[in-house]
Structure formats: structure tokens, C-alpha cells
Amino acid sequence: MNFVLFPPVILDKISPSLVLNFSKRGGNDLCVYDNFVVLENGIINPCFPVRVFLNDQSFPAIGDIKTGDYTTWVSSLEPGIHQLKIELNTGENILSFSLGKIIVKENTLQKKNLKDIFPIGTWITPLSFETREEMEKHYNKLFQKLKEYGINTVVIVHFSGKNLDVIKKLTKKYGLSILFYPTVFKNIGVPLNPKKVYSACKKTADDWKSCPNLIAYGIWDEISLEQAKHWKFIRMVMEGLDPEHPVTVCLNQNHLRQTEIQEAQILHRDIYYPPGGSSKSISGFEKEVINAGRIAEKLKIPLWVTMAPGYPVNGVREMCWHSLANGATGLFFFHCYTIYPKGSIWRGFIELPDLKPTPQLEVIKEISQKINKLLPFLSMLKSSENIAKSSQPLLSVKTRSEHRGNLYLFIVNRDINSEVTGDITINKEIDKVIDIFTGEEINLKNRVFSCNLKPGDGKVYRLVNLH
Predict the structure, then answer these.
(1) Half-sphere exposure of 301 toward its Cβ, with a 13 Å CA cutoff?
(2) Are 407 and 387 in contact (CB under 8 A)?
């Protein structure tokens, strides 16, 4: 078999997840196309193993020897000059050939800008309806209610067929975004079958990439340790099919090793530990969200936190504020409906069948109204060296900063049962602090001011130095 080399390819605008297509042309010649394209066309069953090497990093390829059509995913191609070769294992021997070089001038992946997205969302799962009219009536009322109470995103899990048509139409009507977990991924086991992966991803992208209110795909919910080793291949395929939408997995409390998420575009984390700290220790929730915030910032990806809305009202409030204080740019709640028994932490905030909101949803509305005006600003903040402390251990104090160097204090009451007042001392020359929600200005005396917070509540202050 002979290979025809192509000259260097110069790419100005590319997706970091590229697909190399090449096919056999005339006799035994294999000619490589002279460009790289995002995968759109189908492929045939895998035949014998093919691997593509980019700068000595190997990527699997799938295709059919009868037609000579193969496809491979090359992830995260950075600007520069890249050497490319192909290796075919025929069973009898291994054939290796150089395919030339690729010159990448710029990386301009046109994904939705995650810095402009701050989802406040809830998980919904299918209910049973006798007629389409009954279904539409239910979701009309539900989505209107969610929008009214500050929810701007729904997480769609296990929906299919006519359910999805209704969901797409009505979320768009009420201005709700969608984080979509496709049902087809439930049946993909590990180790992965490339054909099944491609088929599932192709169907998902064909059905959803043109959906105007889709913000991201979710591959697996609370992945297993075995799935954690394989999900990145699915992400690469989805990126090739739909480069505009980010791909994530939802991790539970047992999955937060950096190696499992190092190529994720979003750290989406379930944290179901209880809220409510004491003067001697922080809550399990606060401890976990601090860790998640550190990893997300180190990886330079957004942090989305999923909480359980079945905790006491002030516990829900405290979890939201701790999430914001540690850099979360997405707040989610599992579950929406009260389908779990009373006392369950996963009991939702919408009562069935009349869709009456619970007091927990009132808290979410309160926080949503506070932060909505400042969402782009909150997304820009980064952790900073802590320059303040509280005289009251029940008040958590975090320092965050934005790119111009301005400093902000996030103060959260860990006590979900009692109001707490404490003196906040700043170890830097600061003249006054400004409550970013109310605009209240507090002139400091000896760099100290008093802060009073209701149970589980939080405040954010901007620090001002007049000198």
C-alpha cells in the first residue's frame, strides 16, 4: 500500500478537537485530504487497528479497510508546527508512515463563552402523562414557576422522544437554558466500543447542536471510577461533532482527583454533605466546596456546584453563599420535584401535583435576585491571599480579587440557626468597605468594621483605599 504525502497545511481558524479524514483513492494508494475538518459525515464499522501520531502522542482511529475511510480525533491542538504520522496494524505487521506537518497559526474555537453563563439550575426527570396536551400544560406551568423563582437552567436527564420536543419548545419560550444528559450514553459501557461511542455522539449532536438554549452536554452523571478513565474519549468525539458546546461529567464526592477532570471544560460537582458549621469546625459542605474551588481555579475552568435542596431553609442559604465565596459560577439543585420522601435531603422544592413552591425555593429566589445583577462580575473574581479575619469563628471570611486588583470580602454565617455579629479586622490599609448589594458604605476605624448576618446568610464587600 502506498501513501501520498500532502504539503504542510496552514490552519487559521480551527477547533481544538479536530478530525482527520483520509481515504483510499485508486488502486492501493492512500491519499490524505489536504485539510482538517470537524467531523460531520458517518463512518463504517471498525476493521483493523489504526493509530495516528501527533508529536509522538497516539490517537485511535476507526474506519473500514474496504473503503479506506478512517476517522481519528486529535484533542487540544495548540498553535505551532506539528508532525503527523500514521501507523496501521494489519495483523501480520505494523506499517508506519509520515504524513507531513501541520502549521497551526491560531486557536479560535467558537464555544459558548462560559464566563458569560451563570446557570442557576435544577434537575428534572420525566413524569408520566396520558396525553401530549397534559404534558405541555404541566411543563408550561413548571417552567413559568421556575423562571419566576430565579431558576434559569434545567438539567435534562433520561428524557427521550416527544418529551424532548416539548422540553425544547417550552424552555425556549420561558428563556431557560438546558444542560443535557443524553439517554444514549447510559448504555455505553467500559471499555468503550468506538462504534457505539460515535453512534451515540452523532445522534446527540444531530439532535441538539442547533438548539439555541443548550449550554452544555453532560456525558455521565456521577461517573464510576472505571468511567473516569474513559470519558475523555467521548468528550473528544462530541467536540468534533459539535465544537460550539462544552462537554462535562458530573462528579460525586468520591471523584475529585485532578487526573479525572484535567481535560474537563467545566468542573460540575455534586456536594451533598450537610451544611451548618460550629465555632470549632466547618461543615462537610464547606470543606468540600473549598477543595472544589481550588481545583477548578488551578485548572482554569468554571465550577458548577450541585446541592441538595432538602436541607433546612437556612442550610440551603448557607450552601449557596459558601459556593459563591469559593468561586462557583453555577448553582444547581437536585432534585426539582418533591418525589423523595419527607426528610430526604434530595426532596425537591416544587410540590407535586400542584407545583407549589417550598420555602427552600423562596431562598433560592432571594439569592438569585441578589446576584443576577452582578453575575458577569462574580465570574471574573479569583481567590486571593486572605487579608481579613473575624472575631467570631462562626463567620467565614474569604478574600477574592478581580483583574484590576480590587479586593472583595465574602462573609458567610456558618450558623444556620442563629444570627451572628462579629468584628472584621483587615490587615491592609483600607479606608472603607462598600456592600456591593445594598451600596452601604462603612468607614473603618483602625481597619475594623462590624458585620451582622442572619442564619446562613452572606454578604460581599468591596474594599476601598482612598490614599
Answers:
(1) 20
(2) yes
CB 217 within 8 A of CB 182: yes
Let me know: does 253 contact 273? Beta carbons within 8 Å.
yes
Phi (first) and psi of residue 309, to 5 degrees: -80, 0
| Nearest in space to 82 (alpha carbons), one of 31, 23, 16, 37 | 16
Rounded distance, CA 241 to CA 18, Å?
A: 9
- Cα separation, 397 vs 422, whole angstroms: 11
CB 434 within 8 A of CB 441: yes
Domain with CATH 3.20.20.80 in the chain: 114-380
Element (H, E) at 423: strand 420-426
Q: Is 179 helix (H, G, I), strand (E, B) or coil?
A: strand
At the second CATH level, the architecture of 382-464 is: Sandwich (2.60)
3-state secondary structure of 226: helix
- The topology under which CATH files domain 2-104 is Immunoglobulin-like (2.60.40)
- As separate numbers, helices (DSSP H) first and strands (DSSP E) second, the chain gives 10, 28
How would you write the pLDDT of the chain (467 residues) with one tens digit per residue? 233 333 344 434 334 344 454 444 333 333 333 222 222 232 222 334 556 666 666 665 555 444 555 555 555 556 666 666 666 666 677 766 666 665 555 434 445 666 677 899 999 988 888 888 999 999 999 999 999 999 999 999 878 777 888 999 999 999 999 999 988 887 777 777 767 787 888 889 999 999 999 999 998 888 777 777 777 778 877 877 787 888 888 887 665 555 556 567 888 999 998 998 887 788 899 999 999 999 889 888 899 999 999 999 999 999 999 999 999 999 999 989 988 888 888 889 999 889 999 999 999 999 999 888 787 778 889 999 999 999 999 999 999 999 888 999 999 999 999 999 999 999 988 999 999 999 999 999 899 999 999 999 999 999 998 66
In the chain, the amino acid numbered 305 is: V
Q: Residues spanned by CATH 2.60.40.1180 within the chain?
A: 382-464
CATH architecture of the domain with residue range 114-380: Alpha-Beta Barrel (3.20)
Terminal-to-terminal C-alpha distance of the chain: 76
Sheet containing 432-435: give its strands across: 382-383, 395-401, 407-413, 458-464, 432-435, 441-443
CA angle 205–207–209, rounded 5-degree value: 50
- CA-based torsion, 195, 201, 203, 206: positive or negative: negative
Return the CA Rg of the chain: 26
Question: What predicted TM-score, i.e. pTM, was given to this entire model?
Answer: 0.80
Contacts of residue 209, Cβ cutoff 8 Å, sequence gap at least 6: 241, 242, 244, 245
